[in-house]
Structure formats: C-alpha cells, structure tokens
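Supplementary Methods S3. Complex input for the manganese (II) ion-bound model.
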Amino acid sequence: MATLTYYGHSTWALDTKGTMVLIDPFLTGNTRTQVAAASLSPSFIIVTHAHGDHYGDTVDLAKRTGALVIANFEIANYAQKQGVANAHAMHIGGGHEFPFGRVKLTPALHGSSFPDGAYGGMPAGILLEVEGKRVYDAGDTALFSDMRLIGEGGLDVALLPIGDNFTMGPDDAAKAAKLLGARTVIPQHYNTWPLIAQDPQQFKRLVESSTDSRVAILEPGDRFEIR
Ligand code: NI
Ligand code: MN
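Predicted complex, serialized as structure tokens:
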C-alpha cells in the first residue's frame, strides 16, 4: 500500500513498493521538521514550482542520490544547469508514466521564480496515479473552478494549501475541497511561519460540515496510508 509521510509545509514522501518519491523537498529551513535532507534517499523528486520553499533541497538531494527530478521544462533545465544529472521535463496538462506511477502536471494560480529571480516557468499542481490510487497535490495556488475537472474520475487524497496570504486560505480551500470531491483532504502549507498560521482543526470542521470529504490532519513525521 502506498503511503504519504509529511515533513511539514508542503513536503511529502510518497512511498510505493519500496520506492520513495519526494515532493517539494523543502527540508533545510523548514521550521516544521527536524529531518535533514541528508537522511532521505528518494529515487524521484517532483517539484511543483521554483519557489525556495518547494524547490528546496532538490539539487543536493538529486546530486547525492541520482534521483530523477520531475518538473516543468524550466525547472528541469535549471536543475540540470545546477548539476542535476537526471531530470524529466514536463508541462502543464501533460502526463507521463514513470516506473512508480503516472504524473500529470495541473494548473496552479501562483508564481514560480527561483530564489535568484530566474524564471521558473508556470507553477503546477500534481495529479498522481499510484497503485490504483489518485492523489492530487494542489501545490501553491488560489482557488479556481477547474478544480472540478481535476476531481473528475475521483480522488483518494487531495493535499490543499490553507495558509492564506500566499495561497488559498481555509475558506477557499474548503471550496476547493467541494469542487475536488476527494475522499480525504489533507491540509498543507500552514504554520511554517507566523504569516501562514492557521488552525487545521477549524479547517477540518469547515470541510466536514460542507462537503462529503474527511480531513486528515498530519503532524510532521506522520504517515498516511492511501487506502
Ligand atoms: Ni510558492
Ligand atoms: Mn510556498
């Protein structure tokens, strides 16, 4: 069974059949985790956008482990210029079968510059199909009504930002949950800094009273089995 391990902020490890897929590997500087990038050995790294709190430790991790970096064209190229040997470029709306499952990049309403100001292409969400389960990571985004399309075909898990200020806040994330119709919603991108402080229990009550989705609140280090 595939599992998601939370490292705080928007950093996740998807483990499937002994393979680790790290998503938005922001560990150095992540106030919500004590886990060091050096202790993780992913085979694949997926990056939603170029902001430092998502691109994070991608280069160091990929150089050490040889992990394949999966991202939009601009991020994949930039990573290779930074010394990453293996990168797979995709773009919004495109999907591809990898050894662990299918990845599709979905739209996100946000920015995607690198910390040095370099152009990071368009930000993305990720639709994953792994072991027959469908997981949507919205990345950093505003609410948009096409989330209804992303939910078509059913979602087992939706990872939604609730921090407000840079992304959806709890009210819009609850509307997103309604559009997506996922069985389980898990909040992310909150409480890393005071600017994105939120009460996830309040979000849980809001979603569970206004949709058919259940909300799982994960603390950093927690694992979620995708059943
Ligand atoms: Ni961002
Ligand atoms: Mn962010």
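Residues 49, 51, 54, 110, 140, 166 surround nickel (II) ion (ligand 1) (CB under 6 Å). DSSP finds six helices and 14 strands in the chain.
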